[in-house]
Write a structure and sequence with these properties.
The protein is 40% helix and 14% strand. It is of the alpha/beta class. It folds into three domains: 96 residues, Arc Repressor Mutant, subunit A (Orthogonal Bundle); 202 residues, Aspartate Aminotransferase, domain 2; 105 residues, Aspartate Aminotransferase, domain 1 (Alpha-Beta Complex). The strands form three sheets. An eight-stranded mixed beta sheet has the order 4-11-10-9-8-5-6-7. The chain is globular.
């Protein structure tokens, strides 16, 4: 950058304090960018007369017509004032100079992959190759429908495949017209909230329950009503005893998060009866339902009381989280309302990847991949359970689930959340705490251990460390003194 030389009058400059960016290939664009930055940042003050196009071209070593084009561009931006016969000047009305930008520190960090972190999966090379091949095909053969805005519900092909899959595997019979493709479970929840609920409305929430959903519903301004979960799932009678007029209930009936219990049929009927009597909605998150290790998949709640149930499913656990594809089945009564909300919020979902996933469903490769992963994750579950039992002894009470991708290991009574945090840190694992999923303080402490998407050896070693840390923490607890004999 050349130094500036001001004329005697102080309002004219011969050598401008600018440097050209060599990464910009077009000369006029290069000059425009340099001058614009100098003006906006205050290095060229308002009212300053600029050199002639010939003089500046000589200074910068560019063609004269590049200077002319840059001056004209800056004049159209309102940053220069070209006066016929009098020269070119920096405009008098300019924005405040932009100071030097400070580095921005964001708190978000990508999820870590240490052992027991939730939400990770294995993806076979073959399924990725197939997905990539189908995606390439749809991009190269796209017609007007595929490259246009499309249907706010998503790909008709994928919706038809999902409807067939749900009818066969989940007992849910639905019209593809009432299925909507979304980017994830939390996206589906926000659409439901916008269409059906208002800020301040009460919603039943399983306690303990899915922490991500708790955050989404709180952000939406809803009042979360904690309803206890026992061995039969959400306790509907306990919810009724609270005498809170709830407009909806969020449940994970097939595989409750985090306990892993399956909602009993009597509880399902009671919940549906409650929804019908109160004209409330049930949001069914079919969490991890694809990975049932003993017997066929269970019938979904939407297959029993569909007119009050909004069913939410996802491809995240079958494939991978970065796919960003999930879906919900809407009762016909509210379908048009939710579709209208979708069209105003994020308009229309991307099309090509949806059609590629539809192909994976249609050719059976996704079902075969799921079966192979089911066996792999069952082996991981068994390895974690066996290693923890050996390493922890009585220091952890284990609940080996019959389905899903995580298990719960509870600590004995008397150990606090602080104790659990220390055990987790000592073991160097990414397990969630049970207390992090509760809406109320009461309840035993423990760990939620994700075993999918982690190498088997890493899981065994992490289970050994966690078991030993728990055993040491329990061993430090003071033993109750025996009562004196009378």
């Amino acid at each position: 950058m050349k130094s500036a030389t001001t004329s005697r009058g102080g309002s004219r400059i011969s050598d401008l304090p600018i440097a050209l960016d060599s990464s910009i290939r077009n000369q006029s664009a290069r000059v425009h960018a340099a001058l614009r930055s100098a003006i906006v940042e205050g290095r060229l003050q308002a009212g300053l007369q600029l050199p002639s196009s010939r003089s500046l071209a000589e200074q910068l070593g560019v063609r004269r017509n590049a200077i002319v084009a840059a001056y004209e561009h800056l004049a159209s931006d309102g940053l220069l004032d070209a006066r016929h016969g009098a020269g070119t000047y920096v405009a008098k009305d300019l924005p405040m100079p932009v100071g030097e930008a400070s580095p921005v520190e964001l708190s978000f960090a990508p999820p870590r992959r240490r052992a027991f972190a939730l939400g990770h999966t294995f993806v076979e090379d073959d399924i990725l190759r197939r997905l990539g091949g189908y995606l390439r095909h749809h991009v190269l053969t796209a017609g007007a429908e595929e490259i246009g805005y499309g249907d706010p519900r998503g790909s008709a092909r994928l919706r038809a495949e999902i409807a067939q899959h749900l009818a066969v595997h989940r007992g849910v019979r639905c019209d593809p017209e009432c299925i909507m493709i979304v980017s994830g479970t939390q996206h589906a929840l926000r659409l439901c909230v916008e269409a059906l609920l208002a800020r301040g409305d009460a919603i039943w929430m399983e306690n303990p329950g899915y922490y991500a959903t708790q955050a989404t519903l709180r952000t939406a301004g809803l009042k979360l009503v904690p309803v206890a979960v026992d061995d039969e799932g959400i306790d509907v009678a306990a919810g009724l005893c609270m005498k809170v007029k709830a407009r909806a209930a969020y449940v994970t009936p097939s595989h409750q998060f985090p306990t892993g219990v399956t909602m009993s049929m009597r509880r399902r009927i009671a919940l549906i009866d409650w929804a019908r009597a109160n004209e409330s909605w049930i949001i069914e998150d079919d969490y991890d339902s694809e990975y049932r290790f003993a017997g066929p998949p269970l019938t979904a709640l939407a297959g029993i009381g569909g007119e009050r149930v909004i069913y939410v499913g996802t491809f995240t656990k079958i494939l991978f989280a970065g796919l960003r594809l999930a879906y919900m089945v809407l009762p016909p009564e509210i379908a048009a309302r939710v579709i209208a909300i979708r069209a105003t919020l994020d308009r229309f979902p991307p099309r090509f990847m949806q059609d590629a996933v539809a192909d994976l469903l249609a050719d059976g490769s996704l079902a075969r991949h799921t079966r192979r992963m089911r066996g792999r994750y069952r082996e991981a579950r068994d390895a974690v359970v066996a290693t923890l039992r050996e390493a922890a002894g009585d220091a952890l009470q284990l609940y080996g689930p019959v389905q899903g991708l995580h298990l719960v290991a509870s600590l004995p009574g008397g150990l606090s959340r602080d104790d659990a945090v220390r055990i987790r840190a000592s073991a160097n694992v990414d397990a969630k705490l049970l207390s992090e999923t509760r809406l109320t303080a009461a309840g035993p402490e423990g760990f939620i251990l994700g075993y999918s998407g982690h190498p088997l050896g890493e899981l065994r070693e992490a289970a050994r460390r966690l078991g030993q840390a728990a055993r040491e923490a329990v061993g430090k607890q003071p033993r109750p003194r025996p009562r004196p004999k009378r």
